[in-house]
């Protein structure tokens, strides 16, 4: 589950990670009040107004702006709230901004310029261990750094039996070129950050930038935090941070009815049972020259109700020009699934406007094929996997 920057910072802060402080605001007036309150605490008077949406690159899209007085806070917050923010990570329509974070300006001019670093914590899938990935090149796309100057990205792997060791945190500070107070501050920052990562059951932290202020404080200026859905049951307070306005509406609905659905860009809707078969189906569609419109695993029960729920979800996507149903009937017999498909289509009537290719394999597959062929609907039946994928291409033409 993804959360907003301000929520991620709350979590970080609760584990002792220093953050750029801020207050969330839902309208221009709240933003001004927030700025006043922050000024009382810190006294700088300058603020950054940051759009809170689940997407990075907000700075580039005009969603992060500096306000030098309260009038500017009001103006900028008023402009950002309600806008459709387009960033390199959103679609062309952008994301609607419902709230902003009014944060203290921490880039105050001093004798030394502030420095920006990159730091993330994530699982290294190759070794099965968590790692801290960091770079001196903060504030820009880490993908660009990886492409152009990969030697400037460092990693520190954590042995799960002993956790992050002090010498590792010091090595991070050393590789970032720090010394004196900033070195000590960075060591503390890294230790606290990893503690936060482990204890919050997160699957990703990305802090870009981590800032060294001109007076040698180390703090998180941005926070992308992804929480592990499977661990949310033990973090009720984090579960409440969910903002479904930020999520794909069809995926939200799928979750409600217990279907595993992921929206994709193609035009072939897929309904499959089992995640492995679903992935193989997507591969075969691609190999035959098509593009899957979704990943959908209907799970163990493929009865009429479930098939209907799944069909309705798939058809919500106007990109879908054909549907491939690929079900393996093991425990659930193919004839029952076939009847389920026919009943679902009867129930849905005119809602089904695209050709449906059905491949049922396993127990009673022959009876199932008869049911499909004699249903009176415009189904295309197939017994072999490849045949089904080729049929999809044929009907699309
Ligand atoms: P992102 O663009 O979505 O990654 O949002 P960030 O939170 O990383 O902010 C984007 C950029 O805004 C940062 O890289 C900074 O350069 C700038 N920024 C963030 N906070 C401040 C601040 O307090 N003062 C100033 N002057 N700039 C800031
Ligand atoms: Mn950032």
TrEMBL record:
Q: Which residues form the ATP-grasp fold succinyl-CoA synthetase-type domain?
A: 2-210
Residues recorded as binding ATP, renumbered to this chain, are: 50, 57-59, 106, 116
User: Pfam families recorded for this chain?
Assistant: ATP-grasp_2, Ligase_CoA
Q: Name one GO cellular component term.
A: succinate-CoA ligase complex
Q: Which residue ranges does the record assign to the ATP-citrate synthase/succinyl-CoA ligase C-terminal domain? A: 271-392
Residues involved in Mg(2+) binding: 208, 222
What residues bind substrate, as annotated?
273, 330-332
The GO terms describing molecular function are:
ATP binding; magnesium ion binding; succinate-CoA ligase (ADP-forming) activity; succinate-CoA ligase (GDP-forming) activity
Question: What binding details are noted for the cofactor?
Answer: Binds 1 Mg(2+) ion per subunit.
What is any one GO biological process for this UniProt entry? succinyl-CoA metabolic process
Q: Which reaction does it catalyse?
A: GTP + succinate + CoA = succinyl-CoA + GDP + phosphate; succinate + ATP + CoA = succinyl-CoA + ADP + phosphate
Q: Which cofactor does it need?
A: Mg(2+)
Q: Which keywords, in A-to-Z order, does the entry hold?
A: ATP-binding, Ligase, Magnesium, Metal-binding, Nucleotide-binding, Tricarboxylic acid cycle
Instruction: Cite the annotated pathway.
Output: Carbohydrate metabolism; tricarboxylic acid cycle; succinate from succinyl-CoA (ligase route): step 1/1
For this protein, the Enzyme Commission number is 6.2.1.5
Task: Give yes or no: UniProt keyword Nucleotide-binding.
Answer: yes
Top-level taxonomic group: Bacteria
Q: How does it assemble?
A: Heterotetramer of two alpha and two beta subunits.
Q: What does this protein do?
A: Succinyl-CoA synthetase functions in the citric acid cycle (TCA), coupling the hydrolysis of succinyl-CoA to the synthesis of either ATP or GTP and thus represents the only step of substrate-level phosphorylation in the TCA. The beta subunit provides nucleotide specificity of the enzyme and binds the substrate succinate, while the binding sites for coenzyme A and phosphate are found in the alpha subunit.
Member of which family? Belongs to the succinate/malate CoA ligase beta subunit family.
What protein does this entry describe? Succinate--CoA ligase [ADP-forming] subunit beta
What lineage does the source organism belong to? Bacteria, Pseudomonadati, Bacteroidota, Flavobacteriia, Flavobacteriales
